[in-house]
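Re-run with default settings, no changes from the original entry. Doing this only to confirm the output is reproducible before filing.
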Amino acid sequence: MSVKEKLEVPVMADLAARGEQPEFLFWVGCAGAFDDRYKRVTRAFARILNHLGTSYAVLGKEESCTGDPARRAGNEMLFQMQALQLIELFHAYDIKKIITICPHCYNIFKNEYPDLGGSFEVISYVDFLSDAIHDGTLQLNHEPFSRVKITYHDPCYLGRANGIYEPPRKILQTLSGEMIEMERNKQFALCCGAGGGQMFKEAEKGEKEVFIERTEEALKTNPTIIATACPFCMTMMTDGIKYKNKEEEIKNYDIAELIALALGN
């Protein structure tokens, strides 16, 4: 039986039917549910939650889009319809805490849902993982990364939008002693090029696409791994690596995947 087949993820409706209330809702997000590459990140984080014995559940088939792409693209009516539907569902399950692996979902839950009556404790998975490492509940095997050079790309919706700069760095520094910063990092980091609804439209005219320039900055650090913490960033950086014909030498992994590897999963 494969690791994928062994993975068990609790579903909110099943727990509710048994009268059980998990501490956290694990919000998977559209990319985590439908994008083949990011499904691996979802599975990696679920394995970590199971490893930690975390009280959590997912919505499964009841989960729908947060409305973030609709709002970024200018369709405010669709955003509010999607958001209000989810807020009603969250209240029905008495959800108090939400962990999400998507910075776009994190940002809209934390900063925009309260305007519509949806106030929850929203936790980014990088904060959750960093805290678990710091308090000793998450013990990692450093051997797989002992001689691995890692650079980290700051997602806009984690970094500039919400000030989450140090937790992902602490995680990567724990994994590898060779974490190297790009020239533009933290609040000065360059966008991957797919935020603000750009993922769903054609590139605008210009001399160079943003994801290519950002990939070039990453390659200047001569990394073995480019670490990301966002599905859009993962897509753009992976495309950039392919565009530069470096996919045999350099890999793009999400932070959750790196931790899962350090746990032997």
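The longest strand covers residues 24-27. Strands lie at 24-27, 56-57, 97-100, 121-124, 150-152, 225-228, 251-254.
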